[in-house]
Design goal:
Blueprint: H1 7-30, H2 35-78, H3 80-101
Helix pairs in contact: 1-2, 2-3
């Protein structure tokens, strides 16, 4: 029997359980006492989740760029030629990595 045979169903069931738990947590924390309030809490929770992912999509690349800039600035304090070489290498390899991701 293959080891990866149960991998996909296990991931799918974990995703379904995670989704149900998130929806339950949204409704339980909303304080809604009626069915309509629970449905609205689910809709607003999904909207907040979408906003969270949009914010993370902006924040993570920005944070990585800031950390790279701090690193290159620290290297430039020691050896500016090496920092320039690292920056040139980064400019060459970053578009290659970006095309692989697409």
């Amino acid at each position: 029997m293959k080891k990866n045979e149960f991998r996909t169903p296990l991931i799918q069931s974990a995703a379904v359980l995670g989704g149900v738990l998130i929806l339950f947590a949204i409704v339980a924390s909303s304080g809604a006492s009626s069915t309509g309030g629970g449905i609205l809490a689910i809709i607003f929770g999904i909207g907040n989740l979408i906003l969270f992912f949009i914010g993370m999509g902006i924040a993570v690349p920005f944070s990585i760029a800031v950390l790279i800039a701090i690193f290159l600035a620290a290297v430039a304090m020691v050896d500016s030629e090496q920092a320039a070489a690292m920056y040139a290498d980064l400019k060459k390899t970053l578009p290659a990595k970006r095309s692989l991701a697409q």
